[in-house]
Design brief:
CATH class of the largest domain: Alpha Beta
Shape: rod-shaped
CATH superfamily of the largest domain: Outer membrane lipoprotein wza domain like
Number of domains: 3
Largest sheet: 5 strands, mixed
Order of helices and strands: HEEEEHEEEHEEEEEHEEE
CATH architecture of the largest domain: Roll
Structural class: alpha+beta
Helix content: 10-25%
Strand order of the largest sheet: 7-6-10-8-9
Number of strands: 15
Distance between the termini: 173 Å
Number of helices: 4
Radius of gyration: 44 Å
Strand content: 25-35%
Length: 303
């Protein structure tokens, strides 16, 4: 029997732990990284502040246009071409429509006219779900007139339900160079005749919105000739001169080109017609204002 030989047992090798200094350095690096990560993490977004209410009030929507006598409309019904129609509203505001007969559309907006025709087709069992479209081709029912010294006088429709005086003058091409700044508006309000003089220039001032009146059907705007003064005698350009606001005698002489070499300031006379229709001869100072219709005479110097 052979003897059993045991191999020598080697002691297990112990792991070498990191030196205390290295461990402390590693901890410092980990803590530094964690702090940096915490600093770079974005903060939670702050709750948005409530929007401050706007101080500018929103503009009120303008009234819709209402159909009137003489307007030409085009009516179409989806997938029903036989019901398409172009018609002019009668003086009573009605039209003759297929299957429905006489239908009154005067005084209605476009949306209300569409609903009226659709309700008639539906209630009569002609179309189950009618989709009606009304298009205004010509506006004849609501019109205003502008006459006098404008570039394009005539009749203009009130489209969009509202038309102001300045908008009408813009459509007429503006006031002509010979036209006055004060216009006259005549019409009817609440069944009573109305006549109003409006200073167009003042309607553009901050407090002049009320001067820019809203026109109504049948109104007439008259633009008169601008006030003038007349100058003759020893001036460069004798003749009529437009009287501007607050024009003085000196300004009128300047508009006439000034005095000639033979003219004199000492002999200037202003002829003015009074309320009693009598003409007065005045000696005005150079800084005194003139009136419409004044006649300026510049005499010839004797020396």
């Amino acid at each position: 029997m052979k003897p059993v030989v045991f191999a020598p047992v080697r002691p297990a090798r112990r792991r070498r732990s990191a030196p205390p200094a290295a461990a402390a350095l590693a901890c410092t690096l980990v803590l530094s990284a964690g702090g940096a990560h915490a600093q770079t993490t974005p903060a939670a977004p702050a709750a948005p502040a409530a929007a401050a209410p706007s101080a500018v009030p929103s503009a009120a929507p303008s009234a819709e246009y209402r159909l009137g006598a003489g307007d030409v409309v085009k009516i179409t019904v989806f997938q029903n071409p036989d019901l398409s129609l172009e018609a002019r509203l009668s003086d009573a505001g009605g039209i003759s429509y297929p299957l429905l007969g006489s239908v009154t559309l005067g005084g209605l907006t476009v949306a209300e006219a569409e609903r009226r025709i659709a309700d008639g087709l539906r209630s009569g069992n002609f179309v189950r779900q009618p989709q009606v479209s009304v298009l205004v081709l010509q506006v004849r029912g609501s019109q205003v007139s502008v006459l006098g010294h404008v570039n394009r006088p005539g009749r203009f429709p009130i489209e969009g339900g509202e038309l102001r005086l300045t908008e009408l003058l813009a459509q007429a091409g503006g006031i002509a160079p010979t036209g006055a700044d004060v216009v006259v508006v005549v019409g009817t309000r609440d069944g009573k005749p109305m006549r109003l003089e409006v200073d167009v220039a003042s309607s553009f001032s901050p407090a002049g919105r009320a001067e820019d009146i809203v026109l109504q059907n049948g109104d007439t705007v008259w633009v008169d000739r601008a006030p003038t003064v007349y100058i003759y005698g020893q001036v460069q350009r004798p003749g009529p001169i437009r009287l501007e606001r607050g024009m003085t005698l000196l300004q009128a002489l300047a508009a006439g080109g000034g005095l000639t070499l033979r003219g004199t300031e000492k002999g200037i006379k202003v002829h003015r017609r009074g309320a009693d229709d009598k003409v007065q001869v005045l000696d005005l100072a150079m800084d005194q204002p003139l009136r419409a219709g004044d006649v300026i005479y510049v005499r010839e110097s004797l020396f």
